[in-house]
């Protein structure tokens, strides 16, 4: 059995890296707080089902879509902000009017209320997704969607 006693002293540069890593984590935490999604997601006394019903009732336009492809990158922007852009096929309109919508834009979902992961799941699972759509002024056939509005991915079939 090894002897228990004082550990071998660490090299001073190891300590500096620990301090730098800790500082970097603190900085990232501050950025995440500054970028936090601030919409009401029903985290009050309502159940998830009740919050979902409320979001559907408040939505003006809701449509069921099939996501064909998704792109993101330095050159995928809207109003000088990087976005995730999804080419979609409109399957049916649940509420309101979504005539001509062929593109959905959203943010990344890293504290910015984006639903990029939901769009990716819709592609990966080959499922329809139902979303509240908001018009994007100056961009016909394009709608914006985020986690503050209504959204639902078709469940997996057994």
Q: Helix content range of the residues, please?
A: 25-40%
- Strand-residue proportion: 25-35%
Number of DSSP-assigned strands: 7
Distance between the termini: 54 Å
Low-confidence stretches: 14-34
Instruction: Average the pLDDT over all residues and give the rounded result.
Output: 81
Main sheet properties = 7 strands, mixed
Principal-axes geometry comes out as globular
Taken in chain order, the helices and strands follow as: HHEEEHEEEE
The assembly state of the depicted protein chains is: single chain
**What topology, given as strand order, has the largest sheet?**
5-6-3-2-1-4-7
* CATH topology title of the domain at 51-153: OB fold (Dihydrolipoamide Acetyltransferase, E2P)
> Treating each run of at least 4 consecutive H or I residues as one helix, how many helices?
3
CATH C-level category of the domain at 51-153: Mainly Beta
Structural class: alpha+beta
Calculate Rg over CA atoms.
Answer: 22 Å
The CATH architecture of the domain at 51-153:
Beta Barrel
Explain what the structure shows:
The chain is of the alpha+beta class and 158 residues long. Helices cover 27% and strands 31% of the residues. It contains three helices and seven strands; from the N terminus they run ααβββαββββ. The chain has helices at residues 12-34, 48-58, 116-124; strands at residues 62-78, 81-95, 103-106, 128-132, 134-135, 142-144, 151-153. Strands 5-6-3-2-1-4-7 form a seven-stranded mixed sheet. Strand 1 (62-78) and strand 2 (81-95) form a beta hairpin. The longest helix has 23 residues, at 12-34. The relative contact order is 0.16.
């Amino acid at each position: 059995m090894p002897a228990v006693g004082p550990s071998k002293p660490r090299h001073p540069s190891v300590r500096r890296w620990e301090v730098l890593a800790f500082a970097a984590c603190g900085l990232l935490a501050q950025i995440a707080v500054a970028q936090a999604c601030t919409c009401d997601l029903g985290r009050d006394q309502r159940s998830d089902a009740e919050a979902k019903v409320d979001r559907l009732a408040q939505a003006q336009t809701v449509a069921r879509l099939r996501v064909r492809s998704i792109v993101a990158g330095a050159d995928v922007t809207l109003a000088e902000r990087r976005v995730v852009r999804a080419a979609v096929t409109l399957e049916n309109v649940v509420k309101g009017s979504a005539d001509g919508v062929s593109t959905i834009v959203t943010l990344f979902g890293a504290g910015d209320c984006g639903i990029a992961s939901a769009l990716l799941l819709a592609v990966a699972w080959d499922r329809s997704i139902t979303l509240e759509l908001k018009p994007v002024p100056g961009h016909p056939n394009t709608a914006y969607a985020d986690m503050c509005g209504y959204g639902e991915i078709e469940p997996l079939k057994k």
